[in-house]
Hints:
Mean pLDDT: 88
Amino acid sequence: PSARRMLRIGLLLLGWLAPAVPFEIEIPPGIDTLAQALEKRRVIGGQDADVDIILQPGIHRWTQPVSLAAEDAGLNAYRTTLLGVNATVSGGVVVREWSRVNGSSHVWRAEIPADADLSDLGTRMQLWRGLRRYVPARSPELYYEECSKQQIVYRQGDVLPEYYDQDSVLLVLYNRWTATFNGIASNNVQNRTINLTAGGFTPSDPDGGGSRYYISNAREYLDEEGEFYIDLPDKAIYIYCDASDNPNSGEDIVISTNLELLHIEGNATAPVRNVVVANVTFAHTGVESSFVRSGADGQSAMHLTTAVVTLRYAENVTVTGCTIRNTGGYALWSSQETHDIEVSRNSMFDMGAGGIRIGRDAVITEPEVTRVHVSDNVLSTAGGVWQMGAGIIVQRASDVLIEHNSIQHFRYTGISVGWTWGYIPTHVANVTVRYNYIHDIGMGYLSDMGCVYTLGYMPGSIVHNNICTDVQSYGYGGWGYYTDEGTRAAVFTNNIALRTKCAGQFQHYGTDNLIANNIYYDVNVGDRPTPGRQEIIMDGHCDGVIRTGTSGRDIDTCSPDTDPHEGCCCYEGCDMAKCSSFTFLRNIVYELNATRTRHSANTYGSPVTPALVSSTWEHGLDNFTFNENVYFTEGGATAATPLFNSSDRTPGESFASWQSNGKDVSSVFADPLFADAAHGNFSLDPASPALLAGFKPIDTSTVGPRGSMRGQLNDQIHGEGWVASLRSVGAIV
């Protein structure tokens, strides 16, 4: 009771609960016990009172998702609150009574629990031992020789002629920004050709997906500690342990049987209102089987239809102080017709896809997701199943504030905003991304990503005061801040990018964007060994510090800004990349070694030369405005070094030549005089030329989660912890 009172006092102080004494319903741990609480809640009637549904300490196993509907929520100012007191809601089943397999010092076996239905393949893809995710038995990483939409040609000796329970064996095939599952329809050993169960696989270039794949969920590969295999014909589960280990002692071993845990969902005429979910741990959800052998490859895993906690037709809902972990997909989804939503002070880790999803992939005629506030959350370690899951993604939503979050150890993008390709009007507007700390993104698994990624027209949107560090893609595209196709009317200001593999700021194509008062320090560093890629593909550097992917054009016949016409315009139906532009104003660009060379070739087969400002195509920067910036390099490069206006096919030019062509006329090539940038202190000497140019110092002291969330991560689970990492870039002392 004392802990409950303290929790309520905290919620009162934050303004999430009314001061009146609530009606309390206490729920003991057990199987599906919350259903009883909802029956009692409905008996109360009237909904003119606060109601606390209190999950008592222990494990609450839900075999089906629980739905809070309109009749379960409060009216007017009254709230229904689902409170957890050291309570864990689990969609899993504990596996017990392990015995060592005869003749093996590492493999243990247990019967599939009688109450676990594992007939769907998705339920056999995850297993946890305590907080640790075990992986389905798998091959090493392999490389195919050829591929098409229907088949791959594998190397001699990489694939067995046949596998045990082959219908359950999966191929994980890497593309540029996705990794998809497919099954083996047939294996022609003579031709070394596997026909895939689902067509549509998009062959990838070596610079993007790298012809990589591996074989998963195959009993023959159960040979490393941390792997498991669920044998449905044998009705058994096998795990591979250290020789001295005994799975009967220590933490529980859990498999997942339930795709979702909580729905807060009304309907078009009766939305759910006034709900708080606080201090509950949600864990152990399954994988959507319908996508496992289908080759589903949605960007950011947007093909998924479920999440651990899902909101639909909901208003004035708060999810705070919760832990969501060990999932088969996204952790939380604010979906159709959700308004005034607060997601704050939560910890989300070990996610099968991504963290928080806002809006949906649907054609809409008016805004359907508005006023969503996501703050002070810690999101870590994701992509355990769907590697392309994003930390936080905003699809079609407006008036969204994403602030003071920590996002790390994702295999794909940190924060993604927008869901329209091109300049056409959308319902994405007024999205603010600020004071977030995003680091260790990509980790060498996928390509074409960034700490913050934007897409399409987004009036009123701003990205400011974020720190982005340590982005490593597999191939191309490990960028810091990434304005992708059709990004329009976005503002990026007061951000910092550090140690990105490729450009600190990259624009595929977009227009009317402002890039102002940012710091890009030691970016475009090239490959560093990572969990997803140990080999060095791009040594020395990747592309450029500031980079655009604008389409080529003949400047004598095509000037889309002054003379738009067919084939040279910015409206739908044209090659809109030809009119790509942004304004790059009062930024600091500082490279430690701009003369380092990259010996490998890029996608187009030509050498990549060092550059501070570059484009894919010749004349690709003609529409762009650069001014009042400060550039500097260490390692021997000077203002005379051709570091500006290079393309993949043409060399760059000196700073003076760049200025003579009307770019950066009021900019300087000089040391900005950071206090101690090598240790993350980006304060400036009073004599800094950046200050003279109008640069405003960036305060990093409040970046990342605030309050008790600031030191919340467990170092044992999350490496050194994000607080130590923040300290390393000078954001805290």
